[in-house]
C-alpha cells in the first residue's frame, strides 16, 4: 500500500521548545495549533515534552513504557477507558449546578471530537530511547489508536516506526483496530528484523451491526480480520484481542468460540479475550449505549460495576476457561494477561517461507 503523508507544518522533528512559562496540560492544549477538521472532528497540533510514558496499571500490564502519538481518538468506542485524559486539557470551570453522575462530561465528549497530534514525536523518541533499557517493553497505542484515520495524512505513528527501524534490540508491541496498519507493512518488517515486534488487532465482535454501534467509526470486523491475515502473510507476528468481553452481549461460549474460529482462519499468532472494565469516565457514555440498545441489561451492569471498575475474580476465571477451551479447539496460542506483551510466547511463528522475522508485545 502506497504511503501518502501530508503532515501539517512543524508536526515532525524540530528543536523548538514550548514557550517560556508554559505549565500544565491545559495551557499546552490552549496553545495547540488548529490544523484541520474532519467529520465533526477538530485536529490540533500540540507541543509535548515527552513521547515515552511510564506505565502504571491495575490490569497486570508488564510493559514499562507506552507511546500514544495522539490525544483523543476518532473511533468513539463506547467502552473507552481513556476519555478521562481530556479532562486535563480543559481549564477548570466552576459549575453553578451539580452535575449528575449520569451526565456525559464535555471533556468525555471532546475525547472523540477533538484530537491532538503530538509535535516532535519522532525527534523526542530518538532522544528518549537513549535513556531506557532496551529490554523494557514499549507499547504503542495503549490509550488512543495509533492508526486512527488522521494518521493517514499525519503519519506520526509511521515516523516513530522509522526511528525503531534504525534501532536494534527493543521489545515493541502495537495495538490497533485499524486496517491502516497495512500501509506500513514494509516498515514493520524492517522494525521486526532488528527488534521484537508483536502486533495486536482488536476485534471486539465479528458482528458488523453490533460493531457499528459499539465502535462507530472503527473499520468493520471483517476488514480487520483480513488485515490480520495480510500481516501474517507478510511474515509478522500478529494476533487478535477480542476485548472487551461484554456481559450478556459478547461473553458467551458461543460468541468466544465464533471469534476464535475466525482468528484461526486468519492464521492469527495468538488469541486473547478479557472482560470489560468500566472506569468512571466511561460509565455515562456506556450507560447511554446500554439504554439505547440493551436496556434489559442496564440493571445487571449497575450491579456488576457498582463498587469496582473491574470484573470479579470469579467472572474473570470463568471467561478465562472459555477462552482457553476455544484456543485449544482451534489450536491457537493465547495470552496470559491484558498486556501488550512481547514475552508471553506460545505464539505461532510468522507465516513466511523466509527465516522468522520475530524473536518469538498513557499520556
Tag the structure with descriptive keywords:
363 residues, alpha/beta, pyruvate-formate lyase- activating enzyme, seven-stranded mixed β-sheet, four-stranded mixed β-sheet, 12 helices, globular, disordered C terminus
Task: Describe the secondary structure blueprint for this structure.
Blueprint: H1 25-30, E1 33-38, E2 41-46, E3 53-54, E4 65-67, E5 70-71, H2 106-110, E6 114-118, H3 121-128, E7 137-140, H4 151-154, H5 156-164, E8 171-176, H6 185-194, E9 196-202, H7 208-214, H8 221-233, E10 238-241, H9 253-265, E11 271-272, H10 283-293, H11 298-304, H12 313-329
Summarize the structure.
By secondary structure, the protein is α/β, with parallel strands linked by helices.
Can you put this structure into words, describing what you see?
44% of the residues are buried. Helix 9 links the parallel strand 10 and strand 11. This protein is an alpha/beta fold and 363 residues long. The protein starts with 24 loop residues before the first helix and ends in a 34-residue tail after the last helix. A 7-stranded mixed β-sheet has the order 3-4-7-8-9-10-11, with helices on one face. A 4-stranded mixed β-sheet has the order 1-2-6-5. It is globular. It has 12 helices and 11 strands. The protein has a domain of 238 residues: Alpha-Beta Horseshoe (pyruvate-formate lyase- activating enzyme), CATH 3.80.30.30.
